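Figure S7 source data.
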Amino acid sequence: MIEIRPCAGFDELEACVDLQIETWGYDENDIIPRKTFLLAQKIGGQVLGAFDNEFPPDPPASRTNSLVGFAMSLPGVKTRNGKTHAYLHSHMLAVRESHRNRGLGAQLKWEQRLEALSRGIRHMEWTFDPLQIKNAFLNIHRLGAIACEYRVNFYGVSSSRLQGGLPTDRLLAEWELDSPRVEAILARRPAVVEKIEESILIPASIDQWKANEASRERALTVQLENRQKFQRAFSRGLAVIGFSRDKDGNGVFELGLLPQAWSETRKI
Ligand SMILES: CC(C)(COP(=O)(O)OP(=O)(O)OC[C@H]1O[C@@H](n2cnc3c(N)ncnc32)[C@H](O)[C@@H]1OP(=O)(O)O)[C@@H](O)C(=O)NCCC(=O)NCCS
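Tokens for the predicted coenzyme A complex:
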């Protein structure tokens, strides 16, 4: 039985730090310390944990080592259309390897959404690496986020093992929490089909290319080519509105004009 709830107390926040290190393999320059998790909670952000009370099976689980996932967000302030609003920047989402692909990552995000809406916050955003097919699938297809901003080498050099030494290029995922698009996904209603103007492909082997010194150059070439494609498409007013996988496991970003209904709710 998995329980998702706000982390409480120093030990549970420390467990998030441990899971962060286990997930990304960060060195001391990149690690977000317990203090920052604590602050996130105190200043209007979120630290939600997923706890599996049967984990690990041996020895019997304690309160803290049963943490199998977490989502952390920081509060932000944005001015759009002359109005200033609070929003949440979701900075980290991690699920322990043993518990992945069971819907837990998505569940943590939906809980973040509910908690945000309960405080009147209608917008969340986060950055993600457009070379990570699984993350793109989760963010765009499963959650209904949209992307229309590309940030080149956003964090500078990163010690994350998932980065493979490549520039930290990121797409900005924007999640309009009560938009028709997101609510349709949540209610499992068929999405409105938007016209796709352009597709950008991520090869299925990209993670292997990144992980291996000999093939890293190949991954970098894809990153640089796709960077240009995204930048050109966004400057033409297109946005990432869909993501799919083809039969060979390649990821396909689908770009089109921002859906009208979505634009209307994007008022903050
Ligand atoms: C990203 C992460 C949090 C997702 O957690 P998770 O619990 O595995 O996610 P979910 O099970 O909710 O959803 C993953 C979806 O991707 C799919 N998926 C799995 N492997 C995939 C792959 N190689 N390519 C595309 N999609 C894939 C799953 O099938 C699932 O979709 P489904 O619900 O249609 O079956 C987890 O993989 C993780 O901790 N990764 C490392 C850290 C990270 O990258 N964090 C996010 C950026 S901050």
